[in-house]
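It would be a great kindness if you could assist me with a short task in structural biology. A protein sequence and the structure tokens that stand for its backbone fold form the material at issue. I should value your view on which stretches of the chain appear to form regular backbone elements. The record follows directly beneath this note.
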Amino acid sequence: MSATDTARLRRTGIGLEIVTLTWNVVGVVLLGVLAWQSRSVALLAFGLDSLIEIGASAVVVWELSGSGDARRRFALRLIGWAFVLLAAYLLVQAVVALATGHHSSPVLGGVGWTAATAVVMFALAWGKHRVGTRLGNPVLITEGRVTLIDGVLATAVLAGLLLDLLFGLWWADPLAALVVVFYALREAMHIFRE
């Protein structure tokens, strides 16, 4: 691959991260308001996931602007720890909500935002994987998995919100938050093994 192609792909990777950052900054604010309105544990957890995604995207932009194995390993560890923090938070919140019988009041804004986020995150994850593979950049590929998990979480949260909204299944909201715990821990272990 020529230096021009490499530079173009790096710019594309940075562009994908900027779109991710922008979407998640808007999402953190919106999800904070929606979680407060609906008292939804899943939306609150999704807001935290957006904060972690912001951090992971910032790490990738930082890593793509430089080079070196030490920098790359450090960036991967940061992303791995973001997965661990996400899984720990979601596990605690979901268990507490289930144990206390916490009932949320789903709002249509939460349904709309999580549906749109699922579509956007799956598209961004695909783009990051494609660009990261062409660059041979494991940090961008790994952060693409973070974005994929964000899409999976959005889908799980959407399912929980819809089950609660349409059928009154209150436990679906905190249960939706548990779905991503498995994926987040799996990805963290994968990163730390590498």
Residues 3-193 form a domain with the Alpha-lytic protease prodomain-like fold (CATH 1.20.1510).
